[in-house]
Amino acid sequence: MTTTTLKIIALVAMLLDHIGVFIPNMPEYLRWIGRIAAPIFIYFVGIGYRHTTNKKKFLLRLYIASVGMALVNLVLIAMPGSNYNDNYNFFAPLFLIGLFLYAIEKKKFTYILLWQLISAVPIIFFIEFVVTNKLLDEYFLGAVLGNSLFVEGGILFVLLGVGFYYFQTKKQLTLYYLLFSALIFVITIKRGHMFELHNRLFFKFGDIQWLMLLALPLLLLYNGKKGVGLKYFFYFFYPIHIIVLYFIGRSLQ
User: How crowded is residue 112: how many other Cβ atoms within 10 Å of its Cβ?
Assistant: First the structure.
């Protein structure tokens, strides 16, 4: 399968997942299907980073998309009578994956780790002592400041993306992904007995996130070819489908 084919499969899975989130009384299996979307998009941000001719422009595009989606979330939450109580911004972890890869490539990984620590201070300060809507500002500030602890998927999505980038053969990919999915499953089982820092670091995940393992057969079918592209289609589809589904769901409640 080409890049385009796999991204379209991921897009459809994501759409079904979010239909299950926003539209009342939808079957639970829509959420199960949706678990395959994130790993596919994460895998291809590494592919995109590897093949782009301008890595800084690539990162800037992802950052703009991330901050733009954070602003969309702000607007939806601030609307009168809004019941929008979550922040969907998958661009944020994708940007951070690219940023971590760039830092590793340029041998500046220490700087990016230092920034994660430094930028966490104002985020924690704001969500603990200044603002009332912690979910809003935690994710918004995480996107703006580029902090992997405060974005969708947390540090685990970033680690998954970095691992995908460096474990390129099908054997390496399979082993890494199986171990990673097993880790997610164990954390899911044990998380109720762990402390708050653990949840902040690892649990931007739901209890069914381990079903992301189902994406592995699709990733193994990747043939290394780009396909027809549709690069900007995916950038625009994400915020538009969130907005449309939110208003449909709101009208049905």
Answer: 17
Residue at token pair 């994710």:
139
Within 10 Å of residue 197's Cβ, how many Cβ atoms? 9
Domain count for the chain, please give it: 1
Give the contacts of 200 (CB within 8 A, at least 6 positions apart).
Answer: 149, 154
The Cα 30–Cα 19 span in angstroms is: 8
For the chain, helix, strand, coil in percent to 5 are 75, 0, 25
DSSP per-residue letters across 36-50: THHHHHHHHHHHHHH
Which tokens go with 6?
């796999």
Whether the Cβ atoms of residue 99 and residue 148 lie closer than 8 Å to each other: no
According to DSSP, residue 149 is labeled G
Q: Which domain holds residue 234?
A: 3-252
How many Cβ atoms are within 10 Å of 161's Cβ, its own excluded?
A: 26
pTM (two decimals): 0.90
Over the stretch 121-159, which tens digit does the pLDDT of each residue have?
Answer: 988 888 877 766 655 678 899 999 999 999 988 888 999
Over residues 154-181, the pLDDT tens digits come to 888 999 999 999 998 999 999 999 998 8
CB 101 within 8 A of CB 167: no
